[in-house]
Amino acid sequence: MWSFAVKRTGTTAVTLLAASVIIFAFIHVVPGDPIYVLLGDTATSDQIDALRHQLGLDQPIIVQYLHWAGQALAGNLGRSIFFQAPVLSVIADGAETSTLLALITIVWVALIGVPIGMVAAVRHGTWLDQGLSGAAMLMASVPTFWVGLYLILIFAATLGWLPSSGYPSIFDGGLGNLRYLLLPSLTLAAPNAALILRLTRASMLDVSREDYVRTARAKGIRPWQVVRRHILRNALLTVVSAFGFTFAALLSEAVVTETVFALPGIGRLVVQSILRRDYPVIQGVILVIVVIYLVTNLIVDLSYRFLDPRVELQ
Amino acid sequence: MSRANIATWLAPFFARPIALAGLCVLVAMVVAAIFAPSLAPYDPYAIHPMIRLMPPDAAHWFGTDQYGRDTLSRAIYSARMALLIGSGVVFFALITGIPVGVFSALFPRLGHVLMRMVDVLMAFPSLLLALGLIVILGPSAANSILAIGAGYMTTTTRIIYGLTLRLRAETYVEASRSMGSGTIWLVVKHILPNLISPLLVQASFVFAFAQLGAASLDFLGLGAPPDIPSWGNMLAESRTFITRAPWLLTFPGMMIVLTAFSLNLVGDALRDRLDPRFRQVFGGEG
Amino acid sequence: MLSVRNLSVSLGPETAPVDIVSDVSFGIRKREILGLVGESGCGKSITSLAVMGLLPQPGPRIRTGRITLAGADVTQLQPWQRVEAGHGHIAMIFQEPMTSLNPVRRVGDQIAEAVRVHDGIRGAAALARARELLDMVRIPDAALQLSAYPHQLSGGQRQRIIIAIALACRPQVLIADEPTTALDVTIQIQILGLLRELCNRLEMSILFITHDMGVIAQLADRVAVMYAGRIVETAAVDDLFGYPGHHYTRGLMDCMPARNLGVRRLPTIPGQAPQPGTIAAGCAFAPRCEAVREVCRVAPPPRLRVSEEHEALCAFPLNGGRPA
């Protein structure tokens, strides 16, 4: 099992390395002199000279990359043009919002998608199943920001039950402030829950066709026991690994959702930085998100081992 | 295409009426896009300050926006953008995915390297990748195609890779190879024809999700320029007025949902018709 | 013990069903092994699943017929319903031992699960009984194997586990659907021997399904031959091999390698078995029968008696025949 873990971690590290090269190249590929890209148009000549020296832009590109990578590992991701502050601290400011949003959303996705998917699978072929599957496909066809805007229209603007924008920290105002994340998390959760629903359903149907499920039925145990003891565990393996991918989709789509709800998170930071041409921040956020995504997938893959005793033979 | 072929392609739609409805919607959309100038009651760009923000009525079925432009006409013209982006993304995904996927499967050593590169690209969540590319290339409709296409290029390549591997293992391919057929011949005669059905399914889904991606980019102001009619742009503009003019929110959104949903239905119906071996590659739904 | 009467299983819409098993009838006595033999696709597996109550849903369904187990009608009941009604003493073992066990649960648990259902005991008592069953199927080191996972066992061992699970149901009838086809010949002999022994010891009846006439010759007491969803001949095994009544059976035996030692080319039956729903009026085997006559193509064949307990579904059976 350890050799599997080591191999898998190694693969992740290599992928991360390759991705980091691409992210590093970002600054150099963006139109314009890298110096102005990093400092903005209003840079003073002193700043320019300092940065030029610091980055060693006359050095071969490999050295520049190594320098950047080293700095990144140490936590120095550059300096935001707009905020005139270290990129990492700017990102960290948005971390609380985005993390909470992601966590709450994942909970919705799991609570809604998995059980309903199971119901649809168990009632395979009935009107209920067709209705649920159709509804899921419909939900997956809806743009998240539209759901968000509609939720704002109904619950915030018309009914006034929930706030439509912003997010004061729970550390300032207490857990009650989580209600600011209710609509955004539901918005983000909708299409993802739909996909997880369909995946759960498909996975359960596939497993229910396996020979060992037939053996289980032949024993004479009741249908719901067959589902619980034989189908679920195997079907959920696929679903669990899909959560890793879902997490990445969440990180992406949060960009739009945070914009719609004006949440002070990393997603909105990216969009604003793009509009403000704050390239160091853009680069920093992409790097952070890619790292999170790869690490999350690694954890999911490794936890597979505890769920599936066959994996140790690989 | 012979009559028998067309019949087999259409069969899954008659089995499932809702998929047929989806197909009809798509056909209607294509027609609307092509004949937009004749179908739209008003000029989508014409500004009429006197009738700004009017709710839907007999003269303006979808109401008017903050510049007095007819929402219905803009929505119809937006179908063009939707079609353009969708086709562009699908085309891009296929044009890159087919060569890379097929040759990776046929030449394992090269394939190993190429697939690892695809893996690296997949480390970037798709919208983030799109945003990054937009930053580098600049916001425009054409660049939206490339930006969104890059995200689907990876999944399409993997799917084609998987399909070709399966096809390669087919005995007749082995037999053909042993008779000394060249690789190009092999690809053209044996592999590509078998890829058509699964790729059609993949194309439907990519087209569907490209709509959502394009709408998101437009909404963020990073896609097509704001005055060009597109559903995403219309939604972006509606944001300030959602309480005063909710119809500006409703109709463009419904169009996006209708399009994406229809495409998904069509893709599903086509997938059910696929050879079960291929269905697995898509994560078949029993 | 087990009686199947006029069983028909069909596919397709209610208004236009297509029979894949048509009017099948047979019976098995206590301690008797009935071999159900036929080529792939003839409907023997579906028949066995129907008898067991395991037809996949949605899918083929029993259109007509009656299945009686020890006098009780269990026709449309699934296994769990049979257990609830007290008629659950029938078990089945399958063809693919490699995939017939749940990969993420220990083998002992899987046997104990069946024990819990049929004996009503739990926990340690159930595991103890599971051990007993493992001994019964000749698995060495039973205690150790209880905590093994299926992927740690060989094909032959897995099949024995599956037999153990079947035995936990205290079956009066055991259905064995080609249990040795996927195994090595040496293991095959062991498993067949085990089944024969269990049949005697436990007074169990066995419905043994196979396409291998050689296995039938070794193991079965009586044989039913199936073709195109119909039973075309039933007889005691010696009678069947000695003087077959149906032309299809004759053809099958002529093709047996054991009967063709030294022959360069194995004889075959020309043509192919018909697809369900494409059988025209008359005898299903008519297109391929070497003794076919005009009336065979037109009228459905009668069930004629060839001799004591020996019937053939043929208008002109070999070796004479009187109305059954």
Q: Main β-sheet of chain C, in a few words?
A: 9 strands, mixed
Q: Number of helical runs of chain C?
A: 11
Query: What multimeric state do the chains show?
Result: heterotrimer
Unreliably modeled segments of chain C? none
| CATH homologous superfamily identity of the largest domain in chain C | P-loop containing nucleotide triphosphate hydrolases
* SSE class of chain C: alpha/beta
CATH class of the largest domain in chain C: Alpha Beta
Quickly count the domains of chain C: 2
Order of helices and strands of chain A: HHHHHHHHHHHHH
Strand order of the largest sheet of chain C: 6-7-8-3-9-10-12-11-13
- Helix share of residues of chain A? over 70%
Structure description:
The complex is a heterotrimer of chains A (314), B (286) and C (324). Chain A has 13 helices and no strands. Chain A has 314 residues and is an all-alpha fold. In chain A, 42% of the residues are buried. Chain B has helices at 3-15, 17-34, 36-39, 71-106, 108-122, 126-137, 141-168, 171-178, 183-219, 231-238, 247-272, 276-281. Chain B starts with a helix and ends in a 5-residue tail after the last helix. The mean pLDDT of chain B is 83. Chain C has 2 domains: 2-89 and 171-323, Rossmann fold; 105-170, no CATH class. The radius of gyration of chain C is 21 Å and the shape is globular. Chains in contact: A-B, A-C. Chains A and B meet through helix 1, helix 6, helix 7, helix 9 and helix 11 of A and helix 5, helix 6, helix 9, helix 10 and helix 11 of B.
Brief overview, please?
With 314 residues, chain A is mostly helical. Chain A is built from 13 helices and no strands.
Topology, please?
The complex is a heterotrimer of chains A (314), B (286) and C (324).
Chain A: H1 2-29, H2 34-39, H3 45-55, H4 61-73, H5 87-122, H6 127-140, H7 144-158, H8 170-173, H9 182-208, H10 211-218, H11 223-260, H12 266-276, H13 279-307
Helix pairs in contact in A: 1-13, 5-6, 5-9, 5-11, 5-13, 6-9, 7-9, 7-11, 9-11, 10-11, 11-12, 11-13, 12-13
Chain B: H1 3-15, H2 17-34, H3 36-39, H4 71-106, H5 108-122, H6 126-137, H7 141-168, H8 171-178, H9 183-219, H10 231-238, H11 247-272, H12 276-281
Helix pairs in contact in B: 1-2, 2-4, 2-11, 4-5, 4-7, 4-9, 5-7, 6-7, 7-9, 9-10, 9-11, 10-11
Chain C: E1 2-11, E2 18-28, E3 33-37, H1 44-52, E4 61-69, E5 72-73, H2 79-84, E6 90-93, H3 107-119, H4 123-136, H5 142-146, H6 155-168, E7 173-177, H7 185-202, E8 205-210, H8 213-219, E9 222-227, E10 230-236, H9 237-242, H10 247-255, H11 294-298, E11 303-307, E12 310-313, E13 322-323
Parallel strand pairs in C: 3-8, 3-9, 6-7, 7-8
Antiparallel strand pairs in C: 1-2, 1-4, 4-5, 9-10, 10-12, 11-12, 11-13
Helix pairs in contact in C: 3-4, 3-6, 4-6
